[in-house]
Amino acid sequence: MTVSTPSPLTSDADWWRSAVVYQVYVRSFADSNGDGIGDLNGIRERLPYLRDLGVDALWLTPFYTSPMVDGGYDVADYRDVDPMFGTLGDFEAMITDAHALGLRIIVDIVPNHTSDQHPWFQAALAAAPGSAERARYLFADGTGEHGEQPPNDWESIFGGPAWTRLADGQWYLHLFDPAQPDLNWRHPEVRAEFEDVLRFWLDRGVDGFRIDVAHGMIKAEGLPDVGFSSMTTGRRQSELLGKGRLPYFDQDEVHDIYRAWRPILDSYPGGRMAVAEAWAETPQRLARYIGPDELHQAFSFDFLDATWSADSFRKVIDTALAEATIVGAPTTWVLSNHDRQRHVTRYGDGEVGLRRARAAALLMLALPGCAYLYQGEELGLPEVLDLPDELRQDPAFLRTGESRDGCRVPIPWSGELAPYGFGPAGSTLSWLPAPATWRALSVAAQTGAPDSTLELYRTALRIRGTHPALAGLGDITWLETAPGVLAFRRTADDTELTCVVNLGDTPVLIEGYGDPIATSTPLTEQPTAHHLLPVDAAAWFHRPI
Questions:
Q1: Coil, strand, or helix at residue 370?
Q2: Structure confidence by residue, pLDDT tens digits, 392-413
Q3: Which residues are catalytic?
């Protein structure tokens, strides 16, 4: 079979250091064939929108062959496209068009676990305990007189025990859903397989990888107990994510995997990169994933988790920039993603939440480093909180009552009726329903409306891409401000840009920073030529020096 290999973009090998990356949740972005499910051709058709928005790259959630128990994060074939999303040829056509428009493509890779439908796991189920087929996964004998209890007290992130017993008496580990068995990353065949998977997609022109559960592939020797569980204390082990040590996460040996992956990435032209979805108990341990011999980036979820206060954001920003300086890599900033409640809702929902979300966008996009946007945040979409239970598809919902479906509702493009242009003309199907209030939030409704969130993002991204002070990494200089206000300056050559964010409870006068060039909320001009910055608002000021 002849394989078409799209040409990579080669103009800037360090593009990832200051890029704006747009996360596409493939199933919910754009539906090209009217079946109610987003697909690769839908993305291809909407590439001009993303170019005009002003982003540099797209991160695509998994589109591989999958039973879709966990939205594609249960992979049955890492080298093919699920028919739900199209074909390998559709992917190659999409990436060719993306590169022609100057957009890079990052794909998700899911190395911690496979689907239970993966040929390897099917072979393991058919084989006997102790077999070579089972050695690729983490099988173990149970405890108790007859092995009737799980091998240890580990819990699934989705709730409940992390072990499932087979009819032959052995148990297998799944840190997520039982349909997602964990691989044994101490097995050389597993390591060789994923190195080949990386090359498969690099050969097809992908510009980078987002590594799912990057902290999870190595488990502590001997599979020791955590020491508590929701069964014994009512406290879930997942509460330690990013706060404490767990024997199944962030083990030192995991870094050997990435030291083997980095030369593969470096052997391809055009600045191929990898970003870790990793949780560690300290910023210092998280920083270990980044470096010239490991990965290029790791997500900073502390920024996403910051409370709406000047002190909280200041602490997170200072810590992240300090760690970035130590490792010589850019910080990543993110406000929302497919696993977390949309930040409009987290910040208070309604008008207050939207005002704060718009201000947070200007804060994030003014910071040095790489920014990740989640589809629909440029439209100011809130979380959909009232989805009927029978429509929810998140596997965590049945175990914990918690669901991520509300941030995965297909985004609105145009029209007066749901699903608001998600599919082709006349299509009425959508795998999750959009609320009636989204009619006013569609791309078509906001395009050209000067005060819309979409036009705010377009303006901010255009300035970020052209203003000398926002180019590259650079430093920030904090400025003295009133309580509850953040202000910092970035300078380049003969120009400076100052970002001011009012997180307090009273409007503040702004003077001496220059002319406003982007504002999340209109400023009020004062007779003295000062500007009044409202509560829950941000502004960028430009001044030549």
A1: strand
A2: 988 888 778 888 999 999 999 9
A3: 212, 277
